[in-house]
Amino acid sequence: MSTQPAGARPGRQGRILLRIEGLKKYFPITHGLLRRHVGDVRAVDGITFDVLRGETLGLVGESGSGKTTIGRTILRLYPPTAGRVLFDGIDVQTLRGKALRRARRRMQMIFQDPYASLNPRMNVGAIVGAPLAIHGEARGREKEERVAELLRLVGLNPGLANRYPHEFSGGQRQRIGVARALALSPDFIVCDEPIAALDVSIQAQVINLLEELGEEYQLTYLFIAHDLSVVYYVSDRVAVMYLGHIVETGPTEELYAQPLRPYTEALLAAIPRVKKSARTERIVLQGDVPSPLDPPPGCVFHTRCHRRVGPICDCEQPPFFRVGEQRVACWLYRNEPAEA
To answer: 16-106+186-258 falls under which CATH superfamily?
Structure first.
């Protein structure tokens, strides 16, 4: 099977850089003075997917679906409950000491909130230069020159390196976060809703910056967002999450043109459109998202699905079926080839 998905940007993608296998992340719930374990919040509940070198994989879903938890677990900010994270063929969860430090140089994160992710007691030069000092890449004059280069790269004046985060706008702070993420020349960056806290007028600037950097430095992105219009613009492929599960993946153009799963269909129908088109009917999902503390049996979406096919949806979790270049976990497609 080819490692390059349909709809990918030509010339950028290569072999698999990141492989997630059966990843689970449960947060324990305790009660009482003795902190007795009474349950688990199943934030991520057994997901499997690949990210190819040089591509941008968009990860979408409602708030609370587990998107951010995936990104943080991949980078070992959260220890996984089960499953494997293979980065360039190496199981990240088995790494310790120097081996882990070497791996972390190649994986970075741009956080959602530029107001909270920068240390207010450090100036910009110290913030951007911290990774260089921690990993012994540069010190003294060499570090200052590298920081200046990074600030120019993200469109900021190097002369502002002695200023503090509160002296910058939201868009400028996020550019500082991007510069910090690029300091160690990583291969893979998790973008955790990097424009969600920014004004609309600034969002396009940051998105364009990430696109340009990705093209120039052959970066691989996991782009987490709930804004489907932005995901369409930046992504080669899209993975859709619901209640800790990935429920559909596919090339961006195909998935947006013909969503297969009812949940994906409802998400895309909710995108605001200025002009009326053939697909203007809004799909209103009934009920609330179930609690990840006690997810429903069977298909996790069956309690809100407007296209249920019968009792099988209520009691059996669907495997992934392949429809063209798309993969979908839905019993509507049980006559299609199932993946092992």
So the answer is: P-loop containing nucleotide triphosphate hydrolases (3.40.50.300)
